[in-house]
Amino acid sequence: MTDQTEANKFLVARLVNEVINGGKLDMIGQLYAPHLTTAARDWIASFRDAFPDVHMRTVQLVAEADTVVGRFTCTGTHRGTWRSHPPTSKRFTDIDEINLYHVRNGKITDTWNLEDNLERLTQLGLLPNHGQAET
Questions:
Q1: CA-CA distance, 111 to 39, in Å (whole number)?
Q2: How far apart are CA 24 and CA 26, in angstroms?
């Protein structure tokens, strides 16, 4: 592990701990490359508006060269509109997420994620007839 890969992992850890969990949206410009700043702010702000108590737990961070892969679990309470769904006040817990980040010059330049939104929707009661036999 090089100093640079450790620095890249630290950058992602700051994103999770300070911005997503801590709500410090003003830090986004310090963590993302300029071409991603607006999109990152819009996505994180809207998710935090829907789930103001969101908490991502880092399960694992792996870094190689300019890439960091994180495995996380996410928990939160549905208090605002999310994906056109009005608040349910229900809580989702331990939703699995995998995120891949490319880092250059100390900033996130690209990101890709996979999250179990089917389970999140199920836990929030937003899937009609999910898991129920039709009558």
A1: 11
A2: 5
Residues of the chain short of pLDDT 50, as ranges, are: 135
Look-up of token digits 């996979």: 114
Across the strands, what pairs with 112? 100
Q: Please tell me the distance from the alpha carbon of residue 29 to that of residue 31, in angstroms, as a whole number.
A: 6
Q: Where are the beta strands (DSSP E) in 9-90?
A: 55-64, 67-77
Q: What is the pTM of this model?
A: 0.90
The predicted structure's pLDDT at residue 66: 96
Angle at CA 75, nearest 5°, toward 99 and 125? 110
Q: What are phi and psi of 116, to 5 degrees?
A: -85, 75
Quickly count helices (H) and strands (E) in the chain. 4, 4
